[in-house]
Amino acid sequence: MFRGDITDILKHNLINLIEAKKIIVILRGIPSDKLTRCAEALCAGGIKLVELAFDASGKVPETEIAASISELSAQFAGRLVVGAGSVITPAQVRLARSAGAEFIVSPNTDESVISQTLECGMVSIPGALTPTEIRLAHSYGADFVKVFPAGCFGPEYIKAVSTPLSDIKLLAVAGILPDEAEEYLSAGASGLGISSGIVKKEFIDDGDFEAITELAQLYSDIVK
To answer: Which residues form the domain of 143?
Structure first.
């Protein structure tokens, strides 16, 4: 079997995993000394997919995020699939891939980022909002399209856009509350991106990882 064939199979399996597990937890600004415990808490709550977000402000160096991706990928191999989030340049795609990321999530639709992601054999999840943007992202080769910020528009918006765009896998991201999760999925979302709905800053600051597990389990139970 050729290397390209193996890459295609692995990518196909990851797409299936995202559709099956439905939740990607977004990790942003987690101190390195608490990252492992946070990941353990998420695993305990049934989470299988996490993305470590780059910092567009530049306050946290890209190399530091890449190191965290590498650390989690190694420590949680077989338990968590790790991706990179807030990816806005092809260089970040390559950096994330070298660190062990398996999928790329962006806040926007950028053809060069999508193209680099596909070239690296990773799952592409660019951000878009309007039907035109969603269709454009799909035409560039996106595997999923992140509808962002979905929470500002609600499940009805997902229902409205998913009907004429039913050939595109949509992820609803940002501001998805537990009591809305099932509604977003019923409206047509293939999955959800959750950040502070599970990994609350006060929990991290207080070291209350049990609370993170409880919220993770709550979402996991909803989407089963």
So the answer is: 3-222
